[in-house]
Amino acid sequence: MQEINWSELSFGYMPTDVNVRCEFKDGKWGDVYTCEDPYINVHMAATGLHYGQEAFEGMKAFQGKDGKVRVFRMDENFKRLKNSCEGILMADLPWDKFENAIMTVIKENKRFIPPYGHGASLYIRPLIFGSGAQVGVKPSSEYMFVVFVTPVGPYFKEGFKPTSLMITREFDRAAPQGTGTLKVGGNYAASLRSGQLAKENGYSAVLFLDAKEKKYIDECGPANFFGIKNNTYITPKSPSILPSITNMSLQVLAKELGMEVEVRPIPVEELDTFEEVGACGTAAVISPVGSIMDYENKKEYKYGTEAGEKSTLLYEKLKRIQNGEEEDKWDWTFLV
Ligand code: PLP
Ligand code: COI
Fold first, then answer.
1. Interface predicted TM-score of the whole assembly (ipTM), two decimals
2. Which of 50, 136, 260, 332 has the most CB atoms at less than 10 Å from its CB?
3. pLDDT surpasses 80 at 158
4. What's the CA gap between 244 and 69, in Å, rounded?
5. 183 an active-site residue?
6. β-strand 121-130 against 69-72: which pairing, if any?
7. Is the CB of 58 under 6 A from ligand 1?
8. Ligand nearest to the backbone CA of 248
9. Where are the domains of the chain?
């Protein structure tokens, strides 16, 4: 195997040894099996290809200083996947198949788990899609579940250095009563053009506003938004945001660190009042935000060139739990 430079990894795809699959046919899920082929033979009329019947998840496994490998909160990813499946009428997978697939794919790709201390982790990507043929707009009667892994570094190239965001009212990611709370492929398709616009202008992601009134902070590219002021961690309440498991965890840790937590609508103007701002998610971990450009209003909000004190405390605490260096009081980690 080619040597992997663990410290230089970015958030990208690298081939590994095997992926794991399970298929739903004739009203039931089959056995979980491993596969070396990264390609999938799919029917051209599969609903996943035409009507976006597809949902995915993202989680990470970490190798600790003690050599043990821990997966962070995979039970929550399972619940969210189940919710996504229900939301777009796909067959949902039982926990035992999910757990078996995740554990198998990690064990079978052991040599790709980044060692402790390089800031890298093993990204786990489960997905389910409608694999049966339909031409009318209706759910498939067949589904395929696949899990692959790939070693990754930071999602935003700055890592734990502040990155910059852009607000634009030109695009929406999801509608209030649409699929924004589900982790379905269509939401990501809807975010591609605005994401490209942000990158072309030198920003790492779009900070979306609520689609109905364009007054409140919504999703933060492929992550959730949080702001900190007066010892309070504040994150948006919205019907079009993906409930981030990282965000959920940070709210618990913020309380542990003696902070208040508020989940409520955040008006755009409130950006002027935050001491620290960040994006959080499995891929993004915590990405401190140094500046936000409101594109249409030509107004820039600035938060400094270094990660803030509270964001750093939260980041360190989260990482220590993920790496097994701090007591996991809430049973968040699953040993492989
Ligand atoms: N929001 C979006 C749109 C995402 O794609 C993700 C990534 O999964 C998140 C938020 C963060 O969620 P989590 O912390 O569960 O990874
Ligand atoms: C994640 O954080 O796991 C994501 O899914 C974000 C993105 C890579 C789609």
1. 0.97
2. 332
3. no
4. 22
5. yes
6. unpaired
7. yes
8. 1
9. 19-152, 163-321
